[in-house]
Write a structure and sequence with these properties.
heterodimer, B: mainly alpha
Chain lengths: ~150, ~170
């Protein structure tokens, strides 16, 4: 009986804890401040999709387009594009498509890259330069043997 | 041992009472609704924010931006976990699971497509290399290249003229 009661107590504690969200029991102003903080955290952590969702939520709530928010949205979308291009280029380079990877890297040639993006760019570049080419004797078949 | 038995004997009623009171508190907490105007305002504010975020998710879905859809539903589930839509089996959580599966499928398809692009490129390079080897085999580089005019053109013309005259005869 005692164990049963203890089990019910624990169940009650779990039940009380499960329904709490980050924004529950806060005033509207506090909720807005928390959303801004979450957005800053997402931006600094490189979670671009999350940051874009939060910025769009802010635009929807304020119902007016502020210049700073629009600029932040444009930057976040650019970063998402760069991340997508780098991911595709990495996959291509890993599969042996060095020229296609190089062509993808060209599409972000004019974009200012962050530190992490630059490291990824250099890695893809190095992998693509070491890939198969007509000029090198036998390199086409050396590369193809593993992939195909 | 005896004390333990005494505890069990005495605790039976207390345990039932304690369980009953805890279950009542829990049930009451789950069923609670905002009572005061401040609580009602806070509840409506949260509802309004959540609705705006779901609208963002639906717009992103119409554009085919699955990453944004996933981020929006994940945020909704995270930020308003007390709302019924965010509970297990709720609408947002179900949508989140579906969009995660869709994104995973999309990633696999993209990886397969890129692998195909890479294979095509390597195949093209291999064909070009083979063509080069064939050329090197049949046209040795140390062979004397005949002059473009005169030798090249004179020989077929002469042969053709001979053949023609042969046919006429």
């Amino acid at each position: 009986m005692c164990r049963w009661a203890l089990g019910m107590v624990l169940l009650g504690l779990v039940g009380c804890g499960q329904g709490e969200g980050e924004l529950s029991r806060r005033t509207v102003a506090e909720q807005h401040a928390l959303l801004d903080a979450a957005c800053q955290q997402a931006l600094s952590g490189g979670e671009w999709a999350r940051a874009e969702a939060l910025l769009l939520l802010r635009v929807a709530l304020v119902e007016s387009s502020e210049g700073a928010v629009e600029e932040a949205l444009a930057q976040v979308r650019e970063r998402r594009r760069v991340a997508a291009v780098l991911a595709e280029a990495e996959t291509l380079a890993a599969s042996g498509g060095s020229r296609a990877a190089q062509a993808l890297l060209w599409t972000i040639a004019g974009v200012a890259l962050g530190e992490e993006e630059r490291v990824r760019w250099e890695q893809v570049q190095a992998q693509a330069q070491g890939g198969p080419s007509v000029g090198k004797e036998g390199s086409v078949f050396d590369g193809a043997a593993g992939g195909i | 041992m005896k004390g333990g038995r005494r505890w069990y004997g005495l605790g039976g009623h207390w345990a039932v009472l304690l369980t009953w009171s805890l279950a009542s508190v829990w049930w009451g907490g789950c069923e609670a609704r905002p009572a005061s105007p401040a609580q009602a305002e806070e509840y409506l504010g949260r509802r309004e924010m959540a609705a705006a975020l779901i609208e963002v998710a639906q717009e992103a879905r119409s554009r085919g931006d699955l990453a944004l859809v996933e981020a929006a539903y994940a945020l909704a589930v995270e930020l308003w976990a007390d709302l019924p839509e965010a509970q297990i089996g709720g609408l947002w959580r179900t949508e989140l699971n579906q969009v995660r599966r869709a994104r995973r499928t999309e990633e696999l398809l993209t990886a397969a497509r890129l692998h195909g692009v890479a294979l095509e490129e390597r195949l093209r390079l291999a064909e070009r290399q083979l063509a080069r080897w064939e050329l090197e085999r049949y046209e040795p580089t140390d062979a004397v290249v005949p002059p473009r005019r005169g030798g090249w053109l004179a020989l077929p013309q002469a042969a053709g003229a001979g053949a023609m005259t042969g046919v006429i005869r």
